Amino acid sequence: MDKERKAAVVEEVAGQIQEAEAVFAVDYRGISVPEAAQLRARLTEAGARFRVVKNTLTMLAADRAGAEPLKETLEGPTAFTFVPPGDGDVALAARAIAQFKREHDVLDFKGGLMNGEPLTAEQLGALSRLPARDVLRGQLVGVIASPITGLVRTLNALVAGLAIQLRQIAEQGKVPVGGAPAAEASDADQEAQAGQAEEEAAQSAEGEETESSSEAASPSDEDAAEEQSEQTETPEEGS
Fold first, then answer.
1. CB contact at 8 A, 28 and 78
2. CB proximity list for 71: less than 8 A, separation 6 or greater
3. Which helix (DSSP H) or strand (DSSP E) does residue 110 occupy?
4. How many CB atoms lie within 10 A of CB 147?
5. Order of strands across the sheet that contains 22-27
6. Phi, psi of 113 (to 5 degrees)
7. Euclidean distance between the first and final Cα of the chain, in Å?
8. Torsion, Cα of 60, 63, 65, 68 (10° steps)
9. What does the alpha-carbon distance between residue 2 and residue 155 come to, in Å, rounded to a whole number?
10. Secondary element (H or E) of residue 49
11. CATH number of this structure's domain 6-130
12. What phi and psi, each to the nearest 5 degrees, are found at residue 201?
């Protein structure tokens, strides 16, 4: 590799280190070419990229990127996994490497970086046991939504309880079937009763007036007796 090509590789790797959300360093001794291709495919599904670069060039790239902790991993054959922000899933990429190691007995974590902070091999192993980012998001949404769900259930229970109470009150006759309040129904009854009383009073007064008229038009018993006496006495005088 000529000098210009080496400089281009150093520049490219330095850019990948700076842009990555996480960088994993692994010992790739014993991995075959077909196995490396299989690992690359799995890491691509996690949004990550697997790359093997000479240690000397990676050392220069780490210096340029200001990633001093990565230089400590550059002992023996070392490959890097770059997990970019956004599309990449750090936990899923770490899990892919850990699973590949269990299946093929190759690839050991050596260390790395995450958000500029150094990672040990043990920390990378812990990352590989975390759920994928989509799963974590779903769990977070569930935690946030659970109080809201409880509130909705409580409100529904209150509304249902109120409906049951109103139905019981209606069945006991405290609320008219038509839905009018009891107070309004009572006022209506009072008005009807008052109207009926006025009508009955008017009819009674009219009856008394008719009776008085009849008594005034007919002669009394004393007048009738006196008139009969006069008629009896008259013939005697003529005789």
1. yes
2. 59, 62, 63
3. strand 108-114
4. 9
5. 49-52, 78-83, 22-27, 108-114, 117-119
6. -135, 150
7. 185
8. 130
9. 74
10. strand 49-52
11. 3.30.70.1730
12. -65, -40
Q: Which pair of structure tokens corresponds to residue 155?
A: 């409100």
How many residues are listed for the chain in this entry?
A: 239
Parallel, antiparallel or unpaired: strands 108-114 and 78-83: unpaired
Query: Do residues 90 and 127 make contact, with C-beta atoms less than 8 angstroms apart?
Result: yes
Taking only the tens of pLDDT, the chain with its 239 residues reads: 788 999 999 999 999 999 999 999 999 999 999 999 999 999 999 999 999 999 999 999 999 999 999 999 999 999 999 999 988 899 999 999 999 999 999 999 999 999 989 999 999 999 888 875 555 445 444 445 456 666 566 666 666 666 666 666 666 665 544 444 444 445 555 555 555 555 655 555 455 444 444 444 444 444 544 454 444 444 444 33
